[in-house]
Fold this protein.
Amino acid sequence: VVSFNLNCLRNIEDRKKEVAEQRITKMSTNNKGKQALTFLLLVLVLVILSWPLALFIASWYVWIMPFEGVFLVLFKTDIIYTVTDFLERFLVWPRALGRAIFVECGSGATFPLPPTQGFSNKERISEGRFDWKKIHFTILWLVLLIFISLPLAIFVMWFWIIAMPFESVLNKMTQIDGKELGEWLSDFLFIFVNWPRSLTKAMFEQSEEFPNPFSTEEASTNQYEAAA
């Protein structure tokens, strides 16, 4: 009788372990299926929504950017700063999606929404009286802005947006100038995207110094990302 009872207990324990293992296997399978669906959803959101939206906004953003200074100087309002800050949230959305796809592989606890703030370190234009003796500098920077800087910014921005989701992948490869490759590439392209803002500032301030895009202290766009 004792032996029979012991065998029954062993069978019950074995059955409990078997049921527990089946539950764990089922949960693991369900989690993998859920993760795969989330991964697919993120890819679809990137390709169908985020990329097209960012590319559509890109051209408008570049042309609106110089008017930040115009409205500030002429109308004493920073409304355009508010507009560009809002647009910037959607411009960098592909980066958040790319991180969720290639780093978290769809296992993130939250869905990567657009950041809650823009990324630009917007330089305020110093107000002063217009000096007609320096008008040639104003004209020079205006010509450079319209015929070189703006077209270049629009051209580069498309590559910047397309490459943005792959920053996380590139970061694992190597470093350049102390930065991970993906971040370095993003910041390098952003130099040309942000150049119209520096030229507009130089134009209104009638600066005699060339607004070199490579000498600007504009911060990395990665530093301005906020959790949604």
